[in-house]
Amino acid sequence: MIAILGAGKMGEALISGLLRAGRPVSGVAAVVRREARAEELRTAYGVPVITAEEAAKTAGTLVITVKPQDMARMLSEIAVFVDSSKLVISVAAGITTSFIERRFSVEVPVVRVMSNTPVLVDEAMSVISPGAFASERHLEAAEDLLRPVGKVLRIPESQQDAATALSGSGPAYVYYLVESMVDAGILLGVPRATALEMVIQAVYGAATMLRDSGEHPVILREAVTSPGGTTISAIRELEKHRVRAAFLAAIEAARDRGRELGSS
Fold this sequence. Notes:
The protein is built from 12 helices and 7 strands. By secondary structure, it is an alpha/beta fold.
């Protein structure tokens, strides 16, 4: 059994993805604190909702999706019931595998994961890193869990905070860009709904070309940027306002905040 401890948006998306991938309802359980939330999950998916103690005793894989500040409390509830046969998968920003490993009295395999909100539409970017006691088998189990809801990539744990800033927070940057482009369209006299449809398709098409062509983004951008044309005029303004530098600083700030969350 796989138990999802802290079934918020991310946890629910994993439950949904596992069931869509063919895992039986009896093989997935949720752990939540509020009875109203428990009833929502039972009604929507039919999965059992159990206590953290029950999950630690009966599930072979424990997926912890609580907020970083709640991780220590959750681990204290399950630590005495977890042995080395279990696999613990953490989806909490900034929390290191060593932080989790130290909470157990035995050598428990831990895999750290950072995913993002497109998990809700099966287009997540999930990056995984093994702890000290996690083997190839444990990494493959984590990949099998996450593949139904998107792409999975292995990285060293030293890069996890950077991954949090790049792909974990990444969708928010795209939404911010879309919002700004739509506002520009309105300024130019385009109705909001029309501008939104145009921008969404532009972003979707550009992302699809990046993924499917294998070309470097500079090459693709240059293909749109004709000498003396409209695009180069726009690029000049973006460079004038230091948009590139702002993105660098923003992503660095997100990385630093992730480290702060983990250390606190």
